[in-house]
Design a protein that fits this description.
The chain is of the alpha+beta class and 370 residues long. The protein has 2 domains: 5-72 and 89-168 and 259-364, 3-Layer(bba) Sandwich (FAD/NAD(P)-binding domain); 174-256, D-Amino Acid Oxidase, Chain A, domain 2 (2-Layer Sandwich), CATH 3.30.9. Helices cover 36% and strands 26% of the residues. It contains 12 helices and 21 strands. It has helices spanning 12-23, 48-56, 60-66, 88-91, 103-111, 156-161, 225-230, 236-246, 275-278, 287-304, 311-338, 341-360; strands spanning 5-8, 28-32, 43-46, 68-69, 73-77, 82-86, 99-102, 117-118, 122-128, 131-136, 141-144, 146-149, 167-168, 174-181, 188-193, 196-204, 207-214, 253-256, 258-259, 266-267, 270-272. A 7-stranded mixed sheet has the order 6-5-15-16-17-14-18, sandwiched between helices. A 6-stranded mixed sheet has the order 8-2-1-12-21-20. Strand 16 and strand 17 (207-214) form a beta hairpin. The chain binds flavin-adenine dinucleotide. Flavin-adenine dinucleotide (FAD) binds at residues 8-14, 31-34, 44-46, 50, 121-122, 150-152, 156, 175, 177, 257, 274-276, 282, 285-289, 291.
Length: 370
Amino acid sequence: MSRRVLVVGAGIAGLATARALGSLGIAADVVERRADRPASGFGLNLPGNAVRALSRLGVDRPLTEAGVPVVRREYRSASGRLLFGVDEAAFWTGIAPSVCVRHGVVLDALAQGIEVRRGVACGRVTVEDHGVRVGLSDGSEEVYDFLVGADGVHSAVRSGALPGAPVSSLMTTGCWRFVTADPGVDCWTAWTGHGVTLLLIPVAPGEVYGYAASNRAAAAVDEPGWLGRAFAAFPAPAVKAVDQVLEGDPTPYYSRVEEVRMPTWHRGRMVVIGDAAHATGPVWAQGAAMALEDALVLADLLARRDDWSTVGAEWEDSRRTRVAHVQAATDRMSRLAGLPGWVSHSVAPLAGPRAYRATYGPLRTDPLAG
Ligand SMILES: Cc1cc2nc3c(=O)[nH]c(=O)nc-3n(C[C@H](O)[C@H](O)[C@H](O)COP(=O)(O)OP(=O)(O)OC[C@H]3O[C@@H](n4cnc5c(N)ncnc54)[C@H](O)[C@@H]3O)c2cc1C
């Protein structure tokens, strides 16, 4: 008799898991709380290891066609002075190109051929000796041979069965995001100074994705007027992008930035993956990459093992070091960004390129090789 897997959540982690399992001959039920299909969303900065994982899932082509390759990064001060640049294309040569693309493009590509029961939320989860009993919002209750909680930062699967809860990110309490007409940037460009950061990345022909945040936890940033005040003295492209979104083209979106750090990601035949297990501030843009790698490694183990009772522990074992590396690099950079501008800017020309190589270097290795 074929064994049954339930994937909770049709975000990047859940869809990637269902897709990876399907390619290895394991069918999975997927339930998603949201009834509607997601909108196009904001930009996703996908470094080479994320694009390599998407390529393994057979969906890199739509992304590289719809998105924009990230060829170069420039870190600048609030006055526009170049602190350091990174030749991103050269760094990821031999792995996969970095790309920036709308979140919805990634979800649509991963969802091709995957059946999702939309408008169905996971409720009560009970881990039993030989499976996991799951209660769903449509009133059904079933026992699955394996449960994958891919239900994001506020995971219901996690809260019912594992210790761990979201906390505010060290980098910032919240941020503004938008997509707007390109104000004149030709590459990934971040300006930092006076305790704030604005990042613009080309995301589609003629469009940039914008991310704006304060590094100071106490600052009242959650009303749009803050954007205009915080970046008024920044270089022309930054001011133009902010003016465009404040004029409603389109309206910017504010959200909290939260992290999840947990002592364990599995219990019996149940795991949490992606943001449900290890949401991390987007300092190094590794959220999608870690979720995709989680999915690939988990599917590989489920396909290779006859006994699924040990897969959770084995999967966690093979993912911990890599995720801990990203979390530690995120904390280091968040602390640096919290220093006064004159301090962080004076060390940036040397420390910046070094931090980039130290963070991404280990992620060039193949997550399935370990
Ligand atoms: C401000 C910001 C900027 C970011 N920028 C980047 C970036 O540039 N690059 C990058 O790689 N990452 C970035 N990330 C992180 C990235 O978006 C995530 O890590 C990635 O999308 C993986 O998400 P996920 O699939 O684990 O969770 P989610 O995307 O949250 O998906 C979870 C899904 O589960 C569903 N769900 C929730 N509860 C239930 C339930 N009880 N039952 C059924 N379904 C449920 C939700 O509706 C959702 O569809 C950013 C994050 C933030 C906050």
